[in-house]
Amino acid sequence: SLEPPAKYREFHDSYRRMLELRVEAFGFYVEGAESRDDNLFAKGNEIWYQAQDIRTDIANLLVELYEDTSSLSEEGTWMLQYLDNVERARPSLAAAERAISRLLYCQTDTECNRAYFDLPVVLRPANDSLKEAFANLDLLQPPENYVRLQSSYEHLLELRIKAHDFYIEGVEQNDVEKINDGDEQWQLSLKAAEDYVSATQELLSKQ
Prior knowledge:
The protein is mostly helical. The protein has helices at about 10-35, 40-65, 75-105, 110-140, 145-170, 175-205.
């Protein structure tokens, strides 16, 4: 159980609440992808946007805390660096998920064609950002209690990056096999997301 100093209480409580909301949203996203239920995706989005409102406040708090890290423990320093990379990766993950979801759940030929050919436009810059975040995270040495959290998040990023690369190549080369490979990596990433959610829940239960 973590008991933050008074100086970090607001950050601690805000981040915990954001995690709780994201865990709930991820659960709806995973169920929605597996069952192809748009209502579950919509519910996930509703909860995700609530978490995003909190994220803005957290980003401002991170800036303030980074200005004075001299008093932070090794664990605290790791946490700030880890969260910074997670937050930097978040918009790219979200943009890629929206692009892929538009293809998976398109209704008309026009919608499907647009979603298909838009994939490289969205996924290439997203992957550049995700690869940078992955490289940065790979340099971090997490405290023992956070090894599973970081490793599960890195595994999720790795699978998403692979899926995006396959989708980009598949569209640009008109290669159905690569599209199928992308689908396979995407499905594996959904399982990885479940593991990341589980690791997050495990941490929350100890706080």
